[in-house]
Amino acid sequence: MKRLQYLGRGGLALLCTVFAIGAGLAVSEHTALAQGGEPLYRNVPLWPRPFADDSWVIGSVTGVTVDSQNHVWVAHRGNFSLENNERGMIPTPGGTGQPSSSVCCMAAPYILEYDVAGTLLSSWGGSSSTYVWPQAVGGIAVDRTGNVWITAAGMETPPATGRGRGGAGGRETAESPPAAAHVLKFTRDGRHLMTIGTAGKSDGPDSRSTLDRPSAVAVDDDAREVFVADMGNRRVVVFDSNTGAYKRHWFAYGERSAGAAPGPYSPTDKPARSFRDLTCIELTNDGQVFVCDKSSNRIQVFDTSGKFLREAMVAPNTLGGIVAGGFGVLNAAGAVWDIAFSSDSEQQYVLVADGANKKVHVLSRSDLAEIGSFGAGGRYPGLFLGLGSVATDSQGNVYTGENHHGKRVQKFVPVR
Amino acid sequence: MTRRRNLLIGATFVATLVVLGTAQRLLEQTAAAQAIGAPLAPTFEVDPTFPKPLPNNWYQGQSIGLWVDSDDHVWIVHRPDVLDDTEGALDRKTAECCASAPPILEFAPDGTLLRHWGGSDGPGWEWPDSNHGLNVDSKNNIWIGGNGSADGHILKFTLDGQFVMQVGRKGVTPDSLSGDHFSRVAETEFHERTNEVFVADGYGNKRVAVIDADTGEMKRFWGAYGNPPDDAAAAAQGEYDPATVYQHFRGPVHCAAVSYDELVYVCDRMSNRIQIFNLDGTFVREIYTQRDSRADGSVWDITFSRDPQQQYLYVADGRNQKLRIFDRASMTQLTTFGKGGHYPGEWYSLHNIATDSKGNLYTVETYQGRRLQRFLYKGLQPVTSMQQGVAWPTGQ
Fold it and tell me: What ipTM is given for this predicted complex?
């Protein structure tokens, strides 16, 4: 059994463990195991601290990222994603017109910023007269300047139609905003800076000005470019991160023209020539672009110009469940929901959030072979439901976000 | 190495400061509370390491029954059949996780899963369509109810899952005057001295029923205020209004907890009230809590502190996601704790509560909560706030 070398070096991992124990953070029994039984990460069950406001709950989490100060940023779907039983302070449409509780609950603001100890530092979000807040937010990114980027990922539908990250529709009806087709840029304290695309306007996969249910963004600070996983258009599209000007786009395998939408995934079929549901986009230190093709169970890797480098399958037999109910669609199809890189400077490892199998896969970045995994399904600390986001900080800690009914952000520390 | 030691020393120093700071704050709070004559109430801290993960990729459904037996083993009943296609993907063979766990689960005090069984019909018994409520009697039998639309019965098993008795039957309609069946029973509770089982009956019927624990024979039943139940009148009460005193149980009649001093505490859940009776059904008094609660109501389950006097009464409020602590003698609410959510110490739909011999508190959650949690008993402290928030471990 190969051990994670960056953990084996001892320094960082030990530092984190000592810090956690020294600071009195309880460590649960829900320890993550690599294949062969070696622990990889240990859950920190008392992270984050409860909201100071007892009436706040977090909605379905669609994005987690860590900024350069090791602050953890979370995007969740707020009241749009709450069930009647957790939104008791909000009168139910069609009900008595009265709230069912005067004390519990309503959603916390959509964007949450935590420090490494799990203390909430800031919270903001919501529509204004100059921009439309998405009903189904997608991924979140924070650039080097500290600006915060989010996307309007769109409501989930069955996977063959190519959507997938935003989450179930909650019970809203009357207040549904226009179709999701934009990327929003804010300062770190929530002041709106820029919108790319236009809510409600999608002109197809060759458009240079419109998007269709963008699910995630990544920022190349040196090149001043923002990379968008334009899920509905089955493409990656790049804009100037200051001006929003179009720069280039490409499709699966780096193709320059759009292919047909693939049918449902089957493990026995040849890999689809187009993306099914592009749910993540991440940039490495050395100029690679990783994307998640969620229900195709695959990662594709490009250079920043769009040249295809390689693809890798993860848990290729995965189909995953899809639920349609009064709350909308919960699309848990596919094994590749989000990606993060290990915190060593070489980024030797790729962490893959797998919401269908309810675990985080750890791959070697050099060959994208799986060397271990952690997690299992459930509602307890260290277990997952709707695991759709993963992020790492500079100390080697891992943060996960749970979509659908999971509605948590969890922290894991490396163990020896 | 030196750096590591320095780090350790530094961390320990920080931790000590935190502990000292917390202790100081507690002392100040205690002093302040005593100065104003604040009452004492039990305090708790959530234990996020309990229970241990289930084996076999098992996943727990809506958890709707809970009891702690005389060995401090924790028994729950949940609904494996409610797992959706994203949760039960191993059952559907669409992913590696997860499979539904058997409905009856026993946990050791260290959180390890022990016995697990149930879910099927057998010779002489019909498994409920919708599991609901669990009680372990002092002779080590397990009693369960069921609130499926056809469920009109309760079941008695040994701790190993051997069938003992079925009382009532499936396929009935509500009839709160019936002597031979129930309707959608929420919970049962055994009372040793009289060898009786008190039945919170329930979602269909609107009564408390009492049976002989050995024969299942119906001994007596009553409605709100100890009057004979009247299903038509109960149904005619209309939509809940916080200003109205209702003469009939709105229901579900969701618990019937018997104290050592032989009072029966009944949850009239959607009326946001507790009605208290003598064992014979004589009405003693009623208490309302969070009377502005609508929908599924604020009084879901009741249990008692473990001192001989049972000085404190605990109410599970799954609408407002609070654990309410009452002084039992005066039935004054002393304080509440908890909040909504899926993190440790939070509840999605707090459904049942129980205590062990050490005074630790256990909770289970239904709907999208689907957890068993333990809260460690931390002694009596002066009450400083009526709404305490999450029972977060000191110093964390």
Answer: 0.90
